[in-house]
UniProtKB/TrEMBL annotation:
It holds the Pfam family DUF3078. This is DUF3078 domain-containing protein. Residues 1-19 form the signal peptide. The lineage of its organism: Bacteria, Pseudomonadati, Bacteroidota, Flavobacteriia, Flavobacteriales. InterPro entries: DUF3078.
Length: 298
C-alpha cells in the first residue's frame, strides 16, 4: 500500500512537470506577493421515517483555508504557505459532533539561487498540529456513547527544520531535498505519564517525556497546475526518514486538493490525504472529502 501511494504521488508530480513547461515561463514578481482561497464545503443526507432503503440522516461541513505569501528579490526566494483544514460531522441520534479533519500547517522555504540555474541553497521549515481536541469513542455499560480525549493542540505537534538544496521551476512547482533535517515531536506529558505507559506508545515519545528528537532526510515537493479549464490540482508531498531509528520506515504525507470551479463563488472540491507514520499508527491513515462549496479567492 505504501509503495502504491508513493508511486501515485510521484506520478502526479511528474505529470505536473509536463504541465509546468508552459506555465513555468511566467516569472514571479519582485517583492512580496500574496494570494489565498477560502472554501466551505457542505455534505448532507436526510431520510424520513418511512424510508426503507436504509441510511442515517447526517450533516457535515469542512472549512479549508489556503494562503500563500511569497517574496522574491533578485536571486533570493522565500515561499510560505499556511493551511487550515477543519471538518465536523453529526449523524442523527449521535450524542456528539465528530471531527472529520483537523489540520493546521505552515510551510516555509527560503533559497539562494546558484547563478542562473533552477537550483538554490535552501533552508526549510515545516510545522504541523491540530486546532481542537481529538477523541476516541466507545460505549459504557449502559450502551451510551462515551469519548476519551486522545489529542489536542500541540499534542502532537511536529516541527521540521534543516538546510538543503531546492530545485524550483516557479512558485507553483518545486522540490526540496534536506539531508540533515531536525524533527521535533511535541506532546502533552499527561498522555505519556498514564499508568502502564510503554515507551513509544504515544507518537514515539518515551514515558513521562513531552519531546522526541529525530534527525534524518526530508524530501518535499509541491506542484499546482490546471488539468483543464476551471479545474486545477494542488499536490503536496512530504517524505521523511529518521537516521536514528528504523530509517527504512519512511514517513509519508501526501495531499491532493482538486478544485472544480463552477463560478466565482461556487466550486466542487475533492481532497485526498494519505499519511504513513509508524510512530502514530501501524498502517496508512487515509481521508477523502468531496462536496459542493462556497469559494472565495483573495
Amino acid at each position: 500500500m505504501k509503495k502504491i501511494i508513493t508511486c501515485l504521488a510521484l506520478l502526479l508530480v511528474s505529470v505536473s512537470l509536463t504541465a509546468q513547461e508552459e506555465e513555468g515561463k511566467e516569472e514571479q514578481k519582485q517583492g512580496w506577493t500574496n494570494k489565498g482561497n477560502i472554501a466551505l464545503l457542505f455534505n448532507q443526507s436526510a431520510f424520513n421515517a418511512e424510508w426503507r432503503g436504509g441510511g442515517t440522516s447526517n450533516i457535515a461541513g469542512n472549512l479549508l483555508l489556503n494562503y500563500d505569501f511569497n517574496y522574491l528579490k533578485d536571486d533570493f526566494t522565500w515561499d510560505n504557505k499556511i493551511i487550515v483544514d477543519y471538518g465536523l460531522t453529526k449523524q442523527n441520534g449521535d450524542k456528539f459532533y465528530r471531527k472529520t479533519n483537523d489540520r493546521l500547517e505552515l510551510n516555509s522555504i527560503a533559497g539562494k539561487q546558484i547563478k542562473e540555474t533552477n537550483w538554490y541553497y535552501s533552508m526549510f521549515l515545516n510545522f504541523r498540529t491540530q486546532i481542537t481536541k481529538g477523541y476516541e469513542y466507545g460505549e459504557d455499560e449502559m450502551g451510551e456513547t462515551i469519548r476519551t480525549e486522545r489529542t489536542h493542540f500541540l499534542s502532537p505537534g511536529y516541527l521540521q527544520i534543516g538546510p538543503g538544496m531546492l530545485w524550483k521551476k516557479n512558485e507553483n512547482f518545486y522540490v526540496n531535498i534536506a539531508p540533515a533535517t531536525s524533527k521535533l515531536v511535541f506532546v502533552d506529558s499527561d498522555f505519556t505519564s498514564m499508568p502502564g505507559y510503554t515507551d513509544g506508545d504515544y507518537f514515539g515519545v518515551d514515558e513521562g517525556e513531552s519531546l522526541r528528537y529525530e534527525i534524518g532526510t526530508s524530501i518535499s515537493a509541491y506542484a499546482k497546475f490546471d488539468i483543464v479549464k476551471n479545474v486545477n490540482m494542488e499536490n503536496i508531498l512530504n517524505l521523511y526518514s529518521n537516521y536514528l531509528e528504523d530509517p527504512q520506515n519512511v514517513d509519508i504525507d501526501y495531499t491532493m486538493n482538486m478544485n472544480m470551479k463552477i463560478n466565482d463563488y461556487l466550486s466542487t472540491n475533492l481532497i485526498f490525504q494519505a499519511i504513513y507514520d509508524d510512530n502514530a499508527v501501524s498502517g496508512f491513515q487515509v481521508r477523502e472529502v468531496f462536496g459542493l462549496g462556497f469559494n472565495y479567492g483573495f
